[in-house]
Amino acid sequence: MTVLFARSGGLGDCILTLFVAQQFRLHNPSSVVHVLGNGTMCEVARLSGLFDEFHFQDSGEFFLLYSFTVTDFLRDFFSRYDRIYFFSSADERRLREALTECGVKQCSILDPRPPSNLTCHITDYLASILETTGEGMPIPSLKQVQTAGFRHDLLVHPGSGSPSKNWPLTRFMDIAKMTTVRCGFILGPAEIECGYQE
To answer: What mean pLDDT is reported for the chain?
Structure first.
């Protein structure tokens, strides 16, 4: 069985998707699994070792799908898959119709934005696209990251695209102090502007 995971987003969104891909791998070890996504998703997928091929969607041909326009290019690409897991906030009905017209045999679509009344962990919600639970999934192991010549066993990125989603920095600091491994923090312009570098 050849399967495609389609997902784009920021670093955190992409890492969360690895839990779903790993759950699928655990139950379908003989499947060939590809990923379609932006540069961030494809790089995270490559580091995870969970995928066999990577396809960048940064092409006008792929973006036509989001206007629900079916082309020969899209038919040739999507028809090769036995099943597609598509994470998208686009109109589900129209997206499913477009993918079906492309020759997709089985398609599961999930809006990656969690509902406001969500009570489970986000990974459980995302894993629901597999019609199973993500409970008890092992954490995907990324290759050790080398930054500025120093190796860290744990890298913490405390920010996100929206400050309202962020856990208080003190909580991250508390966890870092509890670990017995070398811990580093990844700070971008948004975190520095919020005073995280202090």
So the answer is: 81
- Residue 43 tokens read as 């790089």
pTM score: 0.72
Residues 28-71: tens digit of each pLDDT: 899 999 999 998 899 889 888 899 999 998 877 888 888 899 99
DSSP assignments along the chain, one per residue: -EEEEE----HHHHHHHHHHHHHHHHH-TT-EEEEEE-HHHHHHHHHHT--SEEEE--SHHHHGGGGT---HHHHHHHTT-SEEEEE--S-HHHHHHHHHHTT-SEEEEE-SSPPTT--S-HHHHHHGGGTS--TTPPPP-PPPPEETTEE-SEEE----S-GGGPPPHHHHHHHHHH-SS-EEE---HHHHHTTTT-
Amino acid identity at 42 = C
